[in-house]
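Running this now, will post back.
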Amino acid sequence: MTAAAKWHAYFGLKALPFGKDVGDDELWVPASRAPLIDELVDACHSRGHVLLTGEPGVGKTCVLRALRYRLGDSFRLTYCHNATLGRRDFYRQLCLALGLSPKATAAAVFYEVSRHVQQLGEEHVYPVFLLDEAHLLHQDVLDHLHILANYEWDSRSLLSLVLVGLSEMQQRMALARNRSLWSRIHTRVHLGEAKVDDTAEYLQHRLGRAGADASLFSSDAIAMLHEASVGRLRDIDRIATDALKRAARRKLKKIDRHLIELAVAPDATD
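Update: finished.
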């Protein structure tokens, strides 16, 4: 039996409690952030553009996955994550994501994307372009995005742009040279740090999926876990998994504050 299987078996788990293989229908979204998801869904239904910002690990990807799940079949979501490209290569990437054949010149590529968006509109399918890591976008891409959002002299809305990035994206968009795009983004959402209740709710959800009970972690352990992770999901996953492994090695059935402290400390040893 592998080391992983041993600690799973010790706690009677049927799956990795903090793994990444979670379907959209089982995705955890804290109750405190449900209004935010509603706001993003409403923005897409009203054919608007969105800027979503937040620090690393606060759950921006979870929010995007929840948005994807909430939008119906009449929406066509396209996800672009390589934000470090110049304008032509950015549109070539967009072409590939849309299943189109990228052209040689920037003008031809842009025309191909625009024509495809118009065709989708005629088929009553509404495209949503999710641009992740938007704080890394080249300025020449930002300079051109407002043109992508402009159809028939800005009289029609045929697509939604959802820009997702770190907090500094707000300041970048406020620069004078970006005002044309910024003025078109009416939904501007900042994802703040999670609360301790969110961390407790997340543990309950993930442990429940794995066949365990949230009471496996003491209230002090949850408080310490939240403090150490600042509510960031990737850090919660890492620390909680390490604490579970330490508990299994020590033949303990409860995760207490001390085990979390050991999991947090870089030089912690059993």
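DSSP finds twelve helices and five strands in the chain. More later if anyone needs it.
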